[in-house]
Every structure is written in C-alpha cells, then in structure tokens.
Amino acid sequence: xxGSGKAFTYGNLGDMQENYGRVxxxxxxxxxxxxxxxxVYQEVMSLDAPPSFAPGAGQDCENxxxxxxxxxxxxxxxxxxxxxxxxxxxxxxxxxxxxGTLVCR
Length: 105
Hints:
This protein is an alpha+beta fold. The protein contains 2 helices and 4 strands. The chain folds into 2 domains: 1-46; 63-105, no CATH class. A hairpin with a 2-residue loop joins strand 2 and strand 3 (23-32). Helix 1 packs antiparallel against helix 2.
C-alpha cells in the first residue's frame, strides 16, 4: 500500500503524518538528551462516508476514551489515563479551548 507523508519539527518536538487511503497515522517525537524519542503513536481509519450527525463544540458525544481497559499501577499512570481521556474528549467535541490547555504548555 503506497501512502503519502509529511514531517514537521517545532524545536524539540516533531511529528510525522502518513496517509494510506483511509488509514491515517500520527507519530509525535520529543528530542531528549539521548536523541529523538517517540511519545505518541495514533492510527485511525476514516469512515466510508461522513457521519450523519456530529455534536457541536462543547457537546457530549459517544467517546470510547471515557473508559480505558487498563488498570493503572500507580498515581502517574492514573494521571496519564485521565489526561488522555480529557484530550480525546476535547478533540471529539471540537473543544479547542480545553484541547489547547492539554497540549500547549
């Protein structure tokens, strides 16, 4: 399967975006003292057709990330799961105000 891709750097952060038809892949990297380290990998598949309904900004929607099938082992892992859930909920609701507080620091 042949795809297209783009790479961007923002100082010590970078991302790679690849598209293979309906499959879209995002990798986010952080530059550390030992080199570049992957911090996010996300892969999604586009629907065959646009959905017939999407909630507006700030509206609740069916978000599978409201529960994560993983039991955190410590406080740090619980915080990561909570942050990820908030991030995905904001993205699904197109709530850029909340999304920005989670990714722009």
